[in-house]
Amino acid sequence: MFVKNRVYFLALMLSLFSSFAAAWSDTDNDGVPDLKDACPHTLANVEVWADGCAKDKPSGKNAIAEAICLKRLSGGQYPDNCSPLTPLTIYFDLGKVDMGFDQVANLNRLVSFLKHNSVRICILGHSDKSGSEQLNQQISLARAQNIKQLLVEDYGLAEERFSLRAMGSSQPSQDKQSPSERRVEFVVE
Hints:
Layout: H1 2-23, E1 70-71, E2 77-78, E3 89-91, H2 104-116, E4 121-125, H3 133-154, E5 162-166, E6 183-188
Parallel strand pairs: 4-5
Antiparallel strand pairs: 1-2, 3-6, 4-6
């Protein structure tokens, strides 16, 4: 029986290690895991930013970036007269404040937008109604704080470009196809 359990344990460990290794693979060898790599086909020996894009790429108005249209806190949208609004939302599992790997692509889109636009962003944390309002406020703030920490520490963006607001469960999603009320949204200040 010991041998049977040991074989099962070794097979389980190998399976878990393979899944973990695949999640952190770096196919272009730039030092940025594929799950976080906004530019997954960087050439060898090219210096890259934390998001995996080459540091020598043009920036500002000469750069090619996805056209993103975000709400402003004061009303309207940024850039002026853009349309339609870009859904740029990070979703969370029930009771969780850490972003899942499946949300990295949306965070990379925001980082690209921020690299091409000198704006301040307010990170709005939201929760569903499954807990008390006090707990929902705490969870929504922790979600916003964690996203800010990723943007500052992992992507190298300036901390002063971000402010936080804990919305709790006070603002249900306007997107009827939204998979969750547990989310973080981004608006231009």
